Structure formats: C-alpha cells, structure tokens
Amino acid sequence: MGGMAGALYRRVRGIIESARASAARSVNTAQVVSNWLVGREIVEEEQAGKLRAGYGERLMRDLAARLGKEFGAGYGLANIKLFRQFYSAYPGLVGLPKGCAVRSLLKDTGPACVVSAGYNMPHHGTWRPGRLNSNLCWTHYRTLLRLDRREVRAFYEIEAVNNNWAARELERQINSLLYERLAVSREPRTALRGGQPDARADPLRRQERRRGPVHAGR
In terms of residue numbers, what domain contains 93? Predict the structure, then answer.
C-alpha cells in the first residue's frame, strides 16, 4: 500500500498547493474545487483497491495523517471523509475528464489555478443544481451535505443561488424546515418564507414555474 499511498499523497498535495496559489483570484471557488478533486482522488483510489477489506479507511487515515502534518487541521480525518462524501454527493460538480484536472494543475507553465486549468464556470443561464456555482462556498456545500435526499439538496441550492443566501442564512432556512413546510402546506398563505407569506406552496412546482435563469433539471 505504501507506493500507491505515496502516489495518491503527491497528487492530492499538488491539488491543495494549486488551490492555495489561486486564492487571490477566487478563494471560495478554488477551495470548493480543490476539496471536490481531493474527494475524487480518494474515491477512485478506493475503487482500485476495493477487494481489500478496510482499504478505504486505512487509505484515508494515512492521507489525513500526512496532509495534516503539512497543511494543518483542515485536512484531518473528519474533513478527508467529508471531501469523499462531497464528491460522492456531487459527482458532476466540475465538468473535467478524469485525470485532466490533476495533470493541468501540476504543469509548471503559468499560474496553476484550479478553476482556470481546463474548466470554465457555467454561464448563469445554464447553471443547474449539482454543478459548480461561484455563489456557493465550501461552507454552503458542507451545510448541504447534511441533507440525505438529492431533491432536497437541489431545492436549497437553487434557493441559495437565487436569493444570494450567505451560508448562515442557508443553515437557518434548513433548520426552519423550509422545504418540508412548503411541501406539506395546503394553503399558500400558511407557508412562510423569510417571515413573509409564500404564494406558491409546492417547492418543486414553484421552482419549475419560475422563469428565471436557474434551472432545476439535473
């Protein structure tokens, strides 16, 4: 396992260093993409060794121990597992072919930037939930990962983007059970949103009817 773990460490280390180099341009998006790429590396490495019992857990523990020493507590075991969960929940977040991002990030020519190295941010009119959006930082996604159902995550993603919610507001709306209240409401005026009556109680139909630039499709 030592040789493969060492290669994985070098790839992940390159992702993290590249993300940090691009922080002056887009620190939030760079962090999101970096964490997603780390998660993808872990999942793919796990799949390669899936026949070995306990391989994934040992892999993440080894990676966390090595990254933690170099990059600090932000890359401890809990976060390494969260990055893995992030990729599993959002496999299509970044439209890059497998392996392309890592090779681009490790090039010596020009500034290494997670976002600009082979990936263009979707135009606002073509964005859909499950894809990268510059209005959503890592704290937004970390909050969304608490939600098990994909359609509920998509609902809150759309609301956060359309209403420019800060991560704290997103958490507040989730804790207030906004989705559930809108879904069960029979009378539109009984569904409150942000303290005001919402005229369209069904959260999914309400988003489908919206004629804005954000789409609810997959």
Answer: 1-120
Neighbours of 42 (CB within 10 A): 23
Alpha carbon distance 48, 26 (integer Å): 33
Rg (CA), the chain: 19
Q: Which of the 8 DSSP states describes residue 95? A: -
Domain match, 29 and 109 both: yes
| Full-model pTM | 0.70
Amino acid at 2: G
95 vs 138, higher pLDDT:
138
Q: How far apart are CA 110 and CA 22, in angstroms?
A: 11
Could you give the number of structural domains in the chain?
A: 2
The pLDDT assigned to 124 comes to: 55
pLDDT category of residue 99 using cuts at 50, 70 and 90: low
Same domain for 201 and 135:
yes
The arithmetic mean of pLDDT across residues 78-107, rounded, is: 77
103 and 10 share one domain: yes
Cα Dmax for the chain: 62
24-34: pLDDT as tens digits:
446 788 889 88
